Amino acid sequence: MAIELFNNGKHICLMFSDLVDEGEGASVQSNQFLIVQDGTGILLDPGGVLTYNDLYIGMSKYFPPKQLRYVFASHADPDIIASLPRWLAGSDTKLLISSIWSRFVPHFCAQGKTEGRIIAIPDEGSLLPLGDTEFQILPAHFLHAEGNFQFYDPVSRILFSGDMGASMLPEGVAMEAVQDFDKHLPYMRGFHSRYMVSNKVCRYWVEMVRKLDPEWMVPQHGAPFKGRAMIARFLDWIEALPCGVDLMTQEMYQAPRKVTISL
């Protein structure tokens, strides 16, 4: 089911939070996003084959999917773009992805199917014009991927933040905006401690986002953050969080001496 995050009659932002359901926690919940404008749109982090059919049907309510202008991939994980071959076959879209990952993308597709269809984003990010809107593709490297980007919509003031702000929530509640930050924190702490590379890059990212002053921050996993006060709570928290390489010790880099997995 599509959830409207923003709609001013001309510009619409949609979130799909319930398209990945393999039961019993067999797959990671993920959100997909569609920005609709001027009879076309931008699909953000469309996901794997589990999401394609429902996304295609949902998109058809707003414009013919053949007219999809861009697919944006924050990075190259399977839950981000494993469905890419279907989107390339079913539309005239082009893929926006980090220049670091652009040469890996063809491994998802049959030979020759990505030729002329990939736009490699430089490390510094880019502005993306569409109609009378100029979107911002923001650098978010090592949060968590080496080449990582986020997407900012200045009309809706939504920051599509990829893995930053992600939460591992019980089934069926990812569509609800965070109401109590302290209660929500346990669903985020472990993920950010492991997946964000270091506190240093988190602090650089926080400085950038505070200048943007978004009204929504919507991650690729879990619940969105709505309102400046709730986003500020998150920024204060992540700015101070030791994570990734900050937590590594020599004890974690020892050759194993026994079998600890079921063979």
Automatic annotation (TrEMBL):
PANTHER family: HYDROLASE, METALLO-BETA-LACTAMASE SUPERFAMILY, METALLO-BETA-LACTAMASE DOMAIN-CONTAINING PROTEIN. It holds the Pfam family ODP. It comes from Massilia atriviolacea. InterPro entries: Metallo-B-lactamas, ODP_dom, RibonucZ/Hydroxyglut_hydro. SMART domains: Lactamase_B (SM00849). It comes from the Bacteria. Residues 29-221 form the Metallo-beta-lactamase domain. This is FprA family A-type flavoprotein.
